[in-house]
Every structure is written in structure tokens, then in C-alpha cells.
Design goal:
Layout lengths: L6 H16 L4 H12 L3 H43 L3 H15 L8 H8 L3 H9 L4
Amino acid sequence: MEKKSLGVQCDIRTDSVAELILQGKTRHFIIEYTRRTYNIGRASADVLIAKASKQIQEINLVSAEKTLAQLTHALWKVYDRALAANDFAPSVSALREIAKLKGLDQITINHRIERELIDITEADLEAVLEGNDE
């Protein structure tokens, strides 16, 4: 019966599997590598692959958030400089780019639906909510 790995050993194994994933190695290759290197089976290798993949995703998320913050900060500087120079075209452009980075340019409002809801009677609204909108 094989002993359980210590936390540090698991971290080392996870890091090595993450490196293999980043190098583009296949699942089969990684399973064989872990079998030869750490003497573990397929199920344990799959657990390592899952942990390493999650670790990579978390690092990528933090990197993306950091990059977004840096870009937003740089655009605010452009906005401030342009506004100080009374050059409004670059300031408006910077604001639009910030809105795009934050996803605010994706918001759309359907005025037709809003107007339909304003003009709807109480009975018609209940019928629509119940699914009896004839």
C-alpha cells in the first residue's frame, strides 16, 4: 500500500504537471510521466491534471484582471492629459475605450419592450406572467 503524499509533494507534482500542460503535452503523455516519475495511477494523474488546470486558470484570471487595471489606468491618464489641454476628441475616445474594456458598450436597451410594458394593463401582465398571453 502506497503512502499518501505530503502537501509540499502534492504542490511540487501539481507544478510539474502544470508545466507539462503549458508545454502542450497530451493527457496520455502526462499520465505516463506521472506514472514513471511519481509511481501513481491514472486516476491520481487525472486529479493532478485537474488541480494543475485550475491553478493555471486562476493565474490567467489574475493576469487578465491586472492587465485590465493597467490598461484602464493608462486610458484615464490619456483622458486627464487631453482634458487638461482642452483637447476633447482624445478624451472622449479614451472614455469610449474605458467603456469597452469594462463591457459597458455591450449594454443595449430594447425600447419597444419597455413601451409595451408601460402600456400593459394589470390583467394582461398577469396573463403574460402565467403564460396565457394570447
